[in-house]
Amino acid sequence: MIELSQRQYLALRLLREYQKPIKGQQFSQLLNVSPRTLRYEVSAINRIAGQPIILSNKEGYVLNEDPAVLQQIQDCRVDDDRQLEKQLILALLECKEASIYDLTQKLYVSESTIYSLVKRMMPKFHSFSLSLQRRGEWLSCQGKETDKRRMLSHFFFAEANALATTLVNFDGYFSPFGLAELAQIIHETLDELDVQIDDIYIKNIIICIAVCVQRMINGYPSDGSETEADALPISTSPLLTRFVDTICGRLQEQLELTFTEADKATILAFITGSFPEENEQILQNERFRGQIRKLLDKTFRHFQLELDYSAVFDNFVLHVHFLLLRCRHQNFFHNDFATSLRTSHPFIYDVAVYLAYQLEKEFQAAIPGDEIGLIAIYLGSIATYVPTYDLPRVICICPQYHELRKLMVQQLTEKLSCTLDIVKIVSSLSEITDQDHADFYLSTVKTENSLTDLIPISPILSPLEIHRIEKKNLEFMKAQKRRKLRQNLLRFFDDQLFFCNHGLTTEVEILTFFDQLLQQRGVIDDQFMDSVRQRESLSSTAFFNRFAVPHSLEKDALLTKVVYYYSDEPIRWYDSRVNLVLLILSRSDDEQASKIYNLIFDILIDESCYKKMILCRSRQELMDFLEANSN
């Protein structure tokens, strides 16, 4: 079952009724949205479905006619509860008490539905240190005003990003001003102060200030004691203080509001960590630098990586400083880095998740997924490619003439898109001994001995020669991939750890089943599954609404294994829907353990391979499939 928003469901319905392509402009008008929002909604529908349901071509938008896709469309329904939940959150935050009877009439639902929604929403309120209380027919939200503003800011921020717009006018909430109007004031003030703010933080600043101002207009003043009581570090940037003072002064004049020092302090706390400040004092904090270095070293040891991070260390120290400021104040931003890096560089992203976990433990701060995406970018700058397989060993045949050898190595390094391990450079074949091993050879001279793995090249590489080398490298990688799969996956998968259609359709049921099974077999202890759940809480291991690859944060299993579970019925894996779950168990002293994630991901990321893989109904069928499809 696929759950869609009302707008997404309407888009599918329109395409089904028209039964012919709908031009983008006409489609936008029918849905009453902008072309940009239409593109986002189409992308969201395809992402939720895990495959392209809606296609676009020069004639317009049209439904995918594949029978399996059409059946999936039949199973779509509107997620009404999500819309009701949003309305209820606003209603409870925007009044001191709300009558259950009034809410039933306003939202057109029964009392039992209200109670069910309130129960489901409790954890969201608790995450902002708020609680929902019932007194007779009355419901109320209890907690600090700062925390209510924080929850509202998160709410509107999520809504703005869900609609894929730079700014959204929430006409039903913000009045007598709009977000676009406030954004103009903020940008003008930044220009006056000659301050450059990263784009990813701007929307956060606009929405936070808007919520604070609207709460003041609605009669909910800041509590002056809250900021002091929280005793959290706040940015010391003089520029930030001037910025807040200037913004408050302009809004005070325009909206006839009075901003107290408590109001300004609340706004400052909400946007701290998003503003530039003097970095020298931060970089001179040797204790803090030592903590960051210790965590980086521990993370790289955990994944058996040897990376030189000295060139980016100072910048990373600054990044963590501002990250902790944002996290301790529950400040936020949104970017697509986390989503794209999870799928394009899953291993690097997994390293970033582990580093975030270490930062959380060291500094007692919850780190959200968007922050993990930025950490992954830093790691990517250190190691843009973490190889799953060994590099091809190459022997070069090149005369020792002036700088010819140096020139050849330089060209092989700079012009190739792949990386080679040049183990030896010789002048002729006679210098190659029986002890020398190479996967292939490159020669700038004509050789009498016809080696099957020899590629003739000129001293100055031509595009055709580069193509030949890269093609040979690709052949080597494919052959090695088949060999690795045979060597490793045969021992990773187990007949007794292979399950299909056992009637388990939630992450709770599946993880509980795995826990009991693996403890009985003595493969894990009673703490292992807690680590798996904690890893999921940091960032979901579900991809494309097709598969999930859960694993623990620590390599604390007694054996390196993969538990296979497939269900024809979709599995509710936290906020995703998947059909396949592969639980990875890693033993700390297993050198191959760090590569399992990429090995498995290489197969699952290929949609055609995935569709064939889930047809396997035994471990032997799976092994036959993996070997046949690893080329």
TrEMBL record:
Transmembrane segments: none
Record has Repeat as a keyword: yes
Gene Ontology annotations of biological process type: regulation of DNA-templated transcription
Limits of the PTS EIIA type-2 domain: 491-629
Start and end residues of each PRD domain: 283-389
UniProt keyword Transmembrane present: no
Superkingdom of origin organism: Bacteria
Keywords: Activator, Repeat, Transcription, Transcription regulation
Name of the protein in question: PRD domain-containing protein
Species name: Holdemania filiformis
